Amino acid sequence: MSVTGTLSRRTLIKTGLQGSAVAGAALVIGFDVAARAQEPEKKVAINPLKAWLRVDQNGKITLIYSKSEMGQGVSTSLPMILADELGVDWKDIRVEHGELDPALGDQGTGGSGSVADMWLPLRQAGAAAREMLIGAAAQRWNVSPETCTAKGGAVWHGDEKLSYAELVPAAAQLPVPAFDKVRLKSPDEFEYIGKSLPRTDIPPKVDGSAVFGLDVRVPGMVYAVVARCPVFGGKVKKLDASEAKALKGVIDVFEIPAVAEGVHSAGGVVVVAETTYIAMEGRKLLAIEWDNGPGAAESSETLRRQFRKLVDSSMKVVLNQGNTEQAISNAPPEKKIEVDYELPFQAHAAMEPLNCTMHIQSDRAEAWAASQSPNLVQGVIQTLTGLPPEKIQVHTTFMGGAFGRRYQWDFPTEAAQIAKRVNKPVQLVWSREDDMMHDFYRPASYHRMSGALDADGNITGWRHKYTSTSIAEMFDPKASPESSEVGLTTQIPYLTKSYRLEYLPAKSVVPRAWWRSVEASVIGFVMESFIDELARAGKVDPYEFRLRLIGGPREVNDALNPKERPLETARLKGVLQLAADKGDWGKTLPAGQGRGIACHYSFHTYVANLVEVAVNKGAVKVNRVVSAVDLGTAVNPNGIHAQIESAIIYGLTAALKSQITIQGGRVEQSNFNKFTTLSMKETPKIEVYIVPSTAAPTGIGEPALPPTAPALTNAIFAATGKRIRRLPIQPGDLA
Questions:
Q1: What does the alpha-carbon distance between residue 343 and residue 446 come to, in Å, rounded to a whole number?
Q2: Are 622 and 678 contacting, i.e. CB atoms less than 8 angstroms apart?
Q3: How far is Cα 253 from Cα 286, in angstroms, rounded to an integer?
């Protein structure tokens, strides 16, 4: 399969606005996707360096977008949004991932932001194009634009009709209306938004025509793998590559160092060969003596001892409101609790292992990357080669899962180091073991929670002492760790008379970074487990306790995140009530079974999950999960259901099965035989209920994950009376 570049934005604006023998006249509108949809009061300026809507003289409609399709379904939902405003059939809109252009700014995809980012500017662009086409038709007919309507890819005036294809040349000559002045359609005018439509990316994935990173083939390309030190931070001490070099099909064997200056790789020994198989076989023949370095002293147990020592110490006070220490110390013993929660490192374990294809020449470079950030890939190449950005072309492919892992620079750095040496297109491939043992993991963390209640069951004090292997410190030792690690802990939806948050980072050689739902996956478990424990201490139903104490909102987060949109109390209560109602909260279950509930606000979305479990002789079976979600307008409910189901399964896997443990500075799990995941047989019935809304859509790829684990462990407590505070559930925890 040959992969070639598509039309660049520079070429597009030139041919689109000036016309050409190939494309002819076209109506081209550039627009800015930087403004989030949840900020409708912000005026969105026309910026032709973010995304493009193009209607050509044949009526063909193309949306050229700077974000990536990595399974979240944007290639379906974005045409739905545009089709409703533009007045065309959504199937007639083609979505292309635009080529990287340094003037575009960040083209990264993450944070559950694809639809949320595009909602308002895409509607405005569609409405602007519609008005221009109507204006061209009105001029042709010599009538008022107000007497014309646009639908079905045409403009109508009574029984008269002009297709968009006929109108494009004239419309392209009209000025683009101010985006904040165009009329946007009301929800009752939508034809597609809100309907469950089939995913357009599924057929090519089924028939094999979709191009993932591993599918890239470039004439003359070779293949490479890297042998990395199994101990984090280690390096080659002695190498004998004679046997590997003697293997037929092996082209070269050489070392690459770990590099700094804003880019990173683990370093190691590269085997370049005619095929990936030969490269991997050659790697097996390498005789390497490793210098493991100081990282060999680290283990999960030494890290756990460090965590406990830190939470026992005086920590940095991040926020302090009221007198928490006095409130807790003055409370009677039966009205206060102090408990510790612990979460391990987690691997991303995306279905498609990491890979990157690259060709570096003396005067230019080209890359094909399954990356969440083509800008990052370009920056790595620029740093390592000195080439200017305009000489570096990056093509973004489909991705077989990402979950934050493909936002890292280690694999493109290795590819660039290799490509500089071989002077041919080279495809770097990671094996599953490489992917599992050299990830940037979700940080391990430890939390000491203290709380107290008054006689009426109100929270008088809430204290959170928190330590983790800091993400911020990983990437910038001078950074303030709490700015990254504890930001989400400060958005507490429950009323408390005093609150104290403390944090200190732990030292670790283990690489760590963003994992699906980032800090919310940790904070959701801790906060929603602790509120359940407070409810039990107050002898109050956990659901009723939450419902009574959700209030305010408690916006202590403003001290750290003044730009963060505050939590809306009614919406969080709404999903909590919906999940409880649909999940039969309060109805009797047989012995050994239980229900748990949890809610969380993240990525501007409100989710409550209810879990039903059965526990038999220490074995947990999840029978049912009910999820209620308020994400504003549900553009494509079909895609939303898939995202929620995926996040719940991902969360259940992390709670019930998977973890990354360290021994001797290396990961103990190398494949799915030890890093186990939820099987189809183990997957429970999942029910998804979407709160009807006309508000702008918010994130959905991640928000259903944070309340999953606490709803599960709260259900286990309801069934057994045993509280799970350390994930994943360990053998013997429920024996």
A1: 7
A2: no
A3: 9
* 295 membership: H or E segment, kind and range: none
Rg (CA), the chain: 27
- Please report how many Cα atoms fall inside a 13 Å half-sphere around the Cα of residue 514, on the Cβ side: 18
Residue in the structure block whose two tokens are 């994400």: 631
* Contact predicate 569/625, CB 8 Å: no
Under DSSP, the state recorded for 275 is S
pLDDT surpassing 80 at residue 135: yes
Q: Is the predicted pLDDT of residue 554 greater than 70, yes or no? A: no
Task: Please say if the pLDDT value at position 35 is more than 60.
Answer: no
Q: State pTM to two decimals.
A: 0.91
Structural domains in the chain plus CATH codes: 9-201 (3.30.365.10), 221-293+354-429 (3.30.365.10), 300-347+440-720 (3.30.365.10)
Query: Partners of 27 in the beta sheet?
Result: 55
* 533 to 284, 451, 457, 723, 733: CA distances (angstroms): 52, 10, 12, 9, 18
Output the 3-class SS for 642-673: HHHHHHHHHHHHHHHCCCECEECCEECCCCCC
Amino acid at 371: S
Distances (CA, A) of 105 to 67, 102, 262, 406, 598: 12, 6, 18, 18, 38
Mean per-residue pLDDT, 470-491: 65
Q: Which letter does DSSP use for residue 582 in this model?
A: H
DSSP state letters, 473-535:
HHH-TTS-HHHHHSGGGG-EEE-BS-EEEEEEEPP-SS-B---TTTTHHHHHHHHHHHHHHHH
- Three-class secondary structure of residue 124 per DSSP: helix
**Interval 2-34: pLDDT, tens:** 333 333 333 333 333 333 223 456 888 766 655
Q: How far is CA 287 from CA 136, 258, 284, in A?
A: 72, 20, 8
The beta strand positions in 535-670, using DSSP E, are: 550-554, 593-602, 605-616, 619-630, 662-663, 666-667
Phi first, then psi: what are they for 671, rounded to 5°? -160, -175
Residue 318, judged by CB atoms within 10 A of its CB (0-12, 13-18, 19+), counts as buried
Q: In this predicted model, what pLDDT tens digit does every residue of 342-387 receive, in sequence order?
A: 999 999 999 999 999 999 999 999 999 998 888 889 999 999 999 9
Return d(Cα 84, Cα 79) in angstroms, integer: 9
321 burial class (0-12, 13-18, 19+ CB within 10 angstroms)?
middle
Q: Is 562 left (phi over 0), alpha (psi -120 to 50) or beta?
A: alpha
Element (H, E) at 328: helix 324-330
Identity at 594, one-letter amino acid code: G
